[in-house]
Write a structure and sequence with these properties.
The complex is a heterodimer.
Chain A: H1 6-16, E1 21-22, H2 25-30, E2 44-46, H3 51-64, E3 68-71, E4 88-91, E5 98-102, E6 107-110, H4 116-125, E7 128-129, H5 142-148, H6 155-158, E8 165-171, E9 177-181, H7 193-197, E10 206-213, E11 215-216, E12 220-228, H8 231-243, E13 250-255, H9 256-265, E14 276-284, H10 286-300, E15 305-310, H11 314-325, H12 327-330, E16 337-344, H13 350-364, E17 368-373, E18 378-385, H14 392-409, H15 428-431, H16 434-447
Parallel strand pairs in A: 2-4, 3-4
Antiparallel strand pairs in A: 1-2, 5-6, 6-10, 7-11, 8-9, 8-10, 12-14, 12-15, 13-14, 13-17, 16-18, 17-18
Chain B: H1 11-16, H2 28-33, H3 40-51, H4 59-66, H5 73-77, H6 84-99, H7 103-112, H8 115-119, H9 125-133, H10 141-146, H11 164-167, E1 171-172, E2 180-183, H12 186-192, H13 194-206, E3 210-212, H14 222-226, H15 230-245, E4 251-254, H16 257-264, H17 266-270, E5 278-280, H18 281-287, H19 290-295, E6 304-309, H20 312-315, H21 321-328, E7 333-335, H22 351-354, H23 356-364, H24 367-373, E8 377-380, H25 383-396, E9 401-404, H26 405-414
Parallel strand pairs in B: 2-3, 2-4, 4-5, 6-7, 6-8, 8-9
Antiparallel strand pairs in B: 1-3
The chains are: A alpha+beta, B alpha/beta.
Chain lengths: 483, 418
């Protein structure tokens, strides 16, 4: 195990204090993974306290050519916080202050280690609203949300993380501290570097301060569950609602396979012939919600609706959402290994995409469970397999390959909200043509000439065969190596 | 005798963790430290590394595995219900098997494992001081809290002269048509808060039940489990089973959430379930119609404002409604909900002795919600929580009293309005 030279550890300890630097095996192990379940050991774990410290650490890493990457909650699905080449993991959880909530200008200034759900609770106390709501919002950090440009169910109406970032303080890969954007909605001075950093997966710099845009909190919301006889009806309903000039706050769907899983795990109370569910939530002024709900139900009634349930109380609304939340944990009963892809297609193409997924499931004989954010075309495709079966590894990759080709063919994207990281790097070329990829590499090269900042991510490595999705560590014997 | 399921047999449970990170939102220790080793996911990865021979049982591993309150919050919220508390307990047993008990663990063993010593614990000051002193820095408030000379201090119950066993008979005859209940009092309600233990015995009797408080019961075994002492857990479980075995009981009642959690785990932990169904006293009283009985009493003109703290070991067992409904029905108090009622108090049995500052910092997270609630009394259903809450409150200088829910019920039933 190559240990970083003594003088480097001394300098790190000088910068952040010895209690915030560790090369202990235990610390290296506990910072070696994320939600992909792959493992790669870092050489050093550092918990910095402010922008100045991070700038000095990155400058040192750049001088010494040591790989370095930021880590928030470590809850990413594509390997963004995996130290695939070892080096320094910078854990940003100490930088967790909400510095300011400005109720006049509707902005919040925060450090990257603030957990998204905590900011939401704080601003909602003041009657304000930070909409992006990834499923991980109760533990993932705003820094991580920005690195991956996290989405969530409310995106259909409110957009994704990038739509709420007004300005950033960033330590660049050479250790410079730069400030992008600012505290105003309008700002056209120079390039829009803010948008460049949002979704850059920690490969272009380390975000150390964030200026976020807030909205007034909607007065009320109303949740509905609609059971359909077939997936086609549910998929058509999505387009019909939007054509009806209504944008619900969320428009989530579950396919028949997802319903079966939930049925097995809980005493789900749905009609026996139900093969698709939409969960629709509208929000806004209380006075308008009943009318909106009625209008939606009128629009979708002819599309094979078996039953509708409109929540009248917060408890009933919670019960509806509990159905949606119980999908993920129930999947493992199908098969031990889950390949969770977050593809996105234009919402009018959702029915075609679902049909293609069903055909693939039948053709290859592997269960594919689909649910997710139908309203914005972002489907969570879960290919459930048992990798212990001979040949399954190859089959899965063939299935994933076909899924991604179909997505791109329908004008969609291979990742809606999880990012590329290591897991999807092999597929990036399906979507981006060589000149586009070359432009991206040029940006990376210009900002990070020594390729120290989260190396090995986004861009396919030569001869790479990295697995897509959330693969079992046992499936990739090289996973615990680093170097 | 088996000594608890070894770490090797947790392979499947360890593999159930998909490392999503959801436990971070619910771990009292992680919320304070922000360090991956503090949280369930980090500990599970370490358990896997120990089994794979990638991590040794070194000093850093001890520290991380020590940073767990065994509160079960992560298990309750885990999408795959990975039993991290059991995995941590198995890791601690492994450490003890290979390296022996820590000084704290030895203190626990000496105290809770020895019949003569348990019997001599009538002077409550001896109960906690010798165990806790060894690891507490001289500057710690806990040292003051548990020092025999300071036990009469503001943060502590006045030390009782007589233990629970000296206050009530072993058997109280009731109406033969009504249930016969066993009482598992636990160390704290026997020695430290015997007046609460006495309510635990007398309230069911008041309702017509026959009540049996066997003298041969001992410590529930939670401190032994927490310090990785598998053999002692088994000895205590066997002794407690035997204590209740000689009478036909409808159920066994507890008023200490942690004891209840430990006793409920006997079957899984030792293969020796208790001989009768275990029921929390609040659930029992609620079933017996106590809330309606209280609600029928005339309201006092001058009422307290009371709030409730959920002990982790009741909350994670899903017992949150009954204590609140009893409190809402009180004639002498108005109930208010506090924000973060379910946040851990930070005591965690021996955790507070090993990590006094962290324990206190976790506890201090309760203060904002308590202050905002406007309550002057905070009730809870676990003596450990009550001890910790009063300490947090006193250090912050708040005019709030921490009491056991049972004390308020007793007040409502026996005192007339002022």
């Amino acid at each position: 195990m190559p240990m970083p030279a003594e003088h480097i550890l001394h300098r790190l300890a000088d910068i952040v204090g010895p209690e915030h630097v560790s090369v202990a095996t235990v610390d290296r192990i506990t910072h070696s993974f994320d939600a992909t379940q792959r493992q790669c050991l870092p050489d050093v774990v550092v918990h910095p306290g402010d922008t100045g410290e991070i700038s000095r650490i990155v400058r040192l890493a750049n001088e010494e050519r040591i790989p370095i990457l930021p880590r928030g909650a470590g809850s990413g699905f594509t390997g963004g916080s995996l130290p695939v080449r070892g080096g320094i993991v910078l854990v940003l959880t100490r930088m967790n202050r909400i510095l300011e909530i400005d109720t006049d200008n509707l902005i919040a200034v925060v450090e990257p280690g603030v957990v998204t759900g905590r900011l939401q609770r704080e601003v909602e106390r003041l009657g304000l609203f930070y909409p992006p709501d990834p499923a991980s919002k109760d533990f993932s950090t705003l820094g991580g949300n920005i690195a991956e440009c996290a989405g969530g169910p409310r995106c259909v109406k409110y957009g994704v993380t990038r739509d709420y970032v007004l300005g950033l303080t960033v330590v660049t890969p050479t250790g410079n501290v730069i400030r992008t954007g600012g505290r105003t909605m309008k700002n056209v001075v120079g390039y829009d570097l803010t948008r460049l950093f949002v979704g850059s997966e920690g490969t272009l710099g380390i975000v150390t301060q964030i200026i976020l845009r807030l909205l007034p909190k909607p007065e009320a919301r109303k949740t509905m569950l609609v059971a359909f006889a077939a997936i086609d009806g549910a998929a058509q309903a999505v387009s019909a609602i939007i054509r009806g000039r209504i944008i619900p706050a969320t428009l989530e769907f579950m396919d028949g396979a997802a319903i079966d899983c939930v049925r097995r795990a809980t005493d789900l109370d749905l009609p026996p012939d139900c093969r698709a569910v939409l969960i629709i939530e509208v929000d806004g002024d209380r006075a308008l919600l009943d009318g909106q709900a009625r209008k939606i139900l009128d629009i979708i009634r002819p599309l094979g609706v078996l039953e509708t349930r409109v929540a009248e109380t917060a408890g009933e609304s919670e019960a509806i959402w509990q159905v949606r939340r119980s999908v993920s944990p129930s999947l493992r009963a199908l098969n031990p290994h889950k390949f969770n892809e977050d593809i996105v297609v234009p919402r009018s193409r959702v029915p075609e995409m679902i049909r293609a997924l069903e055909a693939l499931s039948t053709r290859y004989g592997v269960p594919i469970v689909n649910f997710g954010h139908a309203g914005d075309g972002n489907i969570h495709v879960n290919v459930m397999v048992d990798l212990n079966q001979p040949g399954m590894d190859a089959t899965v990759h063939q299935v994933l390959d076909e899924i991604f080709r179909t997505v791109v063919g329908l004008g969609g994207s291979v990742s809606g909200e999880h990012g590329i990281g290591t897991a999807k790097a092999p597929y990036i070329g399906m979507e981006l043509d060589p000149p586009t990829l070359a432009a991206m590499r040029a940006v990376k090269q210009a900002l990070d000439p020594n390729n120290i900042m989260n190396p090995g991510k986004i861009f396919p490595e030569n001869g790479t065969t990295a697995a897509a999705g959330e693969a079992d560590p046992a499936a990739d014997p090289s996973a615990s190596d680093h170097g | 005798m088996a000594e608890g399921k070894p770490l090797e047999q947790f392979q499947d449970e360890i593999a159930q963790c998909v490392r999503c990170g959801a436990c971070q939102a619910h771990c009292p220790v992680y919320l304070e430290t922000g360090r991956e080793g503090s949280v369930a996911r980090g500990k599970i990865v370490l358990a896997a590394a120990v089994l794979a021979g990638e991590a040794g049982l070194d000093e850093r591993l001890h520290e991380e595995i020590g940073l767990c309150l065994l509160c079960g919050s992560c298990v309750a919220k885990c999408p795959n219900k990975v039993p991290t508390d059991a995995i941590v307990a198995a890791l601690r047993r492994r450490i003890v098997e290979e390296q022996g008990l820590s000084p704290l663990g030895k203190g626990v063993a000496a105290l809770t494992g020895s019949k003569p010593l348990l019997a001599s614990l009538v002077k409550g000051a001896d109960l906690l001081a010798p165990v806790l002193f060894k690891k507490i820095p001289a500057t710690s408030g806990l040292r003051l809290r548990f020092a025999p000379t300071a036990l009469k201090g503001r943060s502590l119950p006045p030390l009782p002269e007589r233990t629970l066993f000296a206050r009530v008979p072993e058997f109280l005859e009731g109406d033969p048509a009504r249930p016969t209940v066993g009482i598992f009092a636990g160390c704290a309600l026997t020695y430290l808060y015997p007046q609460v233990g006495e309510i635990l015995v007398r309230l069911p009797h008041r309702l017509g039940c026959s009540v049996y408080l066997p003298r041969t019961q001992g410590c529930c075994g939670m401190p032994a489990l927490s310090s990785g002492n598998g053999p002692l857990v088994h000895t205590l479980a066997a002794a407690n089973n035997k204590a209740f075995a000689d009478r036909d009981l409808d159920c066994i009642l507890t008023a200490c959430a942690s004891c209840r959690g430990m006793l409920a785990g006997y079957a899984a932990e030792t293969g020796r379930p208790l001989p009768a169904q275990l029921v929390d006293i609040h659930v029992f009283l609620h079933q017996q119609g106590m809330a309606a009985q209280l609600a029928a009493l005339p309201k006092w003109p001058q009422r307290l404002t009371v709030t409730y703290h959920d002990p982790c070991h009741l909350r994670t067992a899903g017992i949150t409604r009954e204590p609140r409904e009893l409190l809402r029905a009180l004639p002498q108090a108005d109930f208010v909900e506090m924000e973060d009622a379910g946040l851990c108090c930070g005591l965690g049995g021996t955790f507070t002795a090993a990590h006094p500052e962290l324990s206190r910092a976790i506890g201090d997270r309760k203060l904002a919600g308590l202050t905002a609630s406007g309550a002057t009394v905070i009730a809870s259903a676990c003596p450990g929580c009550i001890l910790q809450l009063q300490d947090i409150i006193d250090r912050a200088g708040l005019p709030v009293r921490a009491v056991h829910t049972l004390e308020l019920l007793q007040q409502a039933l026996t005192e007339s309005e002022p």
